[in-house]
Amino acid sequence: MQREKVVLITGTRKGIGRELALFYLGKGYTVVGCSRKEVDFFDDHYSHFCLDVCDEKSVISMVRQVAKKYGRIDVLINNAGMASMNHVLLTPYSTIKKIFDTNVYGTMLFTREVAKVMMKSKKGRIVNFTTVATALRLEGESVYAASKAAVLNFTEVTARELAPYGITVNAVGPTPVMTDLIKAVPKNKINDLIDRQAIKRLGVFDDIKNVVDFFVQDSSDFVTAQTIFLGGVNN
Ligand SMILES: NC(=O)c1ccc[n+]([C@@H]2O[C@H](COP(=O)([O-])OP(=O)(O)OC[C@H]3O[C@@H](n4cnc5c(N)ncnc54)[C@H](OP(=O)(O)O)[C@@H]3O)[C@@H](O)[C@H]2O)c1
Among the four 28, 44, 100, 170, which has the fewest Cβ within 10 Å? Predict the structure, then answer.
């Protein structure tokens, strides 16, 4: 039986994406996820695609298969991302390229392909991931912050481009949350960052789920082009 909503989430193997997948399964939605490696959880209403979000052919193929199977995609959460906490002088081109491939081109490809499916039902919700590092112009994270600035601008422009089709596009900008993404960042750097927030604590998964789920609600159909930074950080 078709469940209430079909949600496509990128980067579901671990971290925030995994939490979001389990959250939406718990809400009774059909969840389709992807990441480069397999996931360690099983659910009758979850299906997984192993792919790299910047591989155009794989993205097109995945979205086509999902659209064929379910007839629609209600929500896209562009969560897959990577970071490299490095000073620009110490960032090799290969790292710069990987960060932009994943964070920017991955988000763009999924948005383009899923929006084509959403257009047909004249409604859809897209939620992108930026970071407080962008809002804070955080030194030591220049390439990562710039990639997420691109995501922020892409969110605002696609919100206008897709509004005529009933599709909203918004973004969440988390503070540090303890996942593998930031495990290599020295504790004093994390504390310095938290010190720049209005509310001085680490983020937790529930903080992010709350904002994402607000954007996803049917009743949020007049909310688009917005980025909500957590912890009291302003852009
Ligand atoms: N944690 C934080 O402090 C924090 C703060 C602000 C913003 N964010 C943002 O939140 C999002 C999730 O971060 P996280 O902390 O959950 O990171 P994470 O724990 O490192 O997880 C990243 C997820 O994305 C997948 N992934 C990475 N590169 C991929 C690629 N090229 N193709 C497909 N899947 C890929 C990973 O699976 P595979 O390795 O199997 O591909 C994994 O499931 C990111 O966009 C990040 O920038 C995080």
Answer: 44
Provide the pLDDT for residue 1: 54
Widest pairwise Cα distance in the chain: 54
Which residues touch 30 (CB under 8 Å, ≥6 apart)?
A: 2, 3, 5, 6, 7, 45, 46, 70
Ligand 1 site, residue 231, Cβ cutoff 6 A:
no
The mean pLDDT values, 10 residues at a time, for the chain of 235 residues are: 86 98 97 98 98 98 98 98 93 97 98 98 98 96 97 98 98 97 91 96 98 98 98 95
Cα 163 to averaged position of ligand 1 atoms, centre (Å):
27
Residue to substitute in 41, 82, 189 for testing ligand 1 pocket (most ligand atoms within 8 angstroms of CB) = 82
- Give 37: exposed, middle or buried? Use CB within 10 Å, 0-12, 13-18, 19+: exposed
Query: CA angle, 50 as apex, 5 and 41 as ends, to 5°?
Result: 65
Collapsing DSSP to helix, strand or coil, 47 comes out as strand
- Give dist(CA 222, CA 60) in Å, integer: 29
Q: Closest Cα to residue 100, out of 147, 52, 51?
A: 147
Please state, as a whole number, how many other Cβ atoms lie within 10 Å of the Cβ of residue 179: 16
pLDDT score of 2: 61
In this structure, which amino acid lies at residue 192? D
d(CA 13, CA 38): 7
Ligand 1 geometric centre to CA of 181 (Å): 6
CA of 164 to the centre of ligand 1 (A): 31
